[in-house]
Amino acid sequence: MRLTVLGCAGSFPGPESPCSAYLVEAQGFRLLVDFGPGSLSTLQRYAGLHAPDAILLSHLHCDHILDAASYVVVRRYAPDGPYPPLPVYAPPGAPDRLATAYGQDDSSVEDVYQFYGLRPGTFPIGPFTVTVDRVNHPVETYGVRLEHEGRVLCYSSDTAPCDALLRLAQDADVFLCEASYLDGVDNPPDLHLTGREAGETATKAGVGRLLLTHLVVAWGSEAHTLASAAGAFTGPLEVVRAGATYDI
Ligand SMILES: [Zn+2]
Questions:
Q1: Which residues, other chains included, contact 190 with Cβ-Cβ below 8 Å and sequence gap of 6+?
Q2: Which domain holds residue 146?
């Protein structure tokens, strides 16, 4: 598997990165996991305008989905289009949410996307075996475990600490984990992880490598988050950047 980070900024785009979007490739099949604001730009820079063979949206918060609305134009009105419907795996409500974001009163985006409603379980997408489960976030949110030929990538999506995340991350080769909050301040419960909590989850799950993402750059401190995570996880870890690639 190859992971390409198209965007990793938490909650809103940062000066150096769009919001969450991760392209995962195996056997020439490219699955786009989340499609946050700005990532349609980096999709073109690092992969290509029509690179995705399928999309998985972990939850319907705007910082994880809005460029899937922008992408309607790309598929529907391309000079060599329209393109056939693209599979989109997403929580229920995605068709209406994306149609509303697209912004036409009578619009549907179901000519562009073939939607599949997420529910906890395991299913195939292209060459991947995908397991999703509900994690601890205020809206219906799915953590994601992708397996291919014995290798495992786990993506936390947005979540506070929870058992489902531990199960999804168990023995993963790479754990792409959010670390939105700073340690040592009074954070609201049941929303996000700190660097320390990401590190603790990585240690409990026995992952090989921890990739920290979804830092809120404008309000945070990358050095602080990294140090907090390193205090709880002794394996290799880093904060990801837009354009970074990882062979898993
Ligand atoms: Zn969220």
A1: 136, 137, 138, 160
A2: 2-247
Average pLDDT over the chain, rounded to an integer: 97
Beta strand pairing status for 121-125 and 113-117?
Answer: unpaired
Q: Which CATH number does the domain housing residue 97 bear?
A: 3.60.15.10
Say what percent of the chain tops pLDDT 90: 97
Looking at the structure of the chain, the number of domains it has is: 1
Distance from the alpha carbon of residue 214 to the mean position of ligand 1, in angstroms: 10
**Distance separating alpha carbons of residues 33 and 235, to the nearest angstrom:** 25
Distance 125 CA to ligand 1 centre (A): 23
Residue in the block written with tokens 């690179």: 51
Helix axes 39-46, 62-76, angle to 10 degrees: 60
Ligand 1 centroid to 245 CA: how many Å?
23
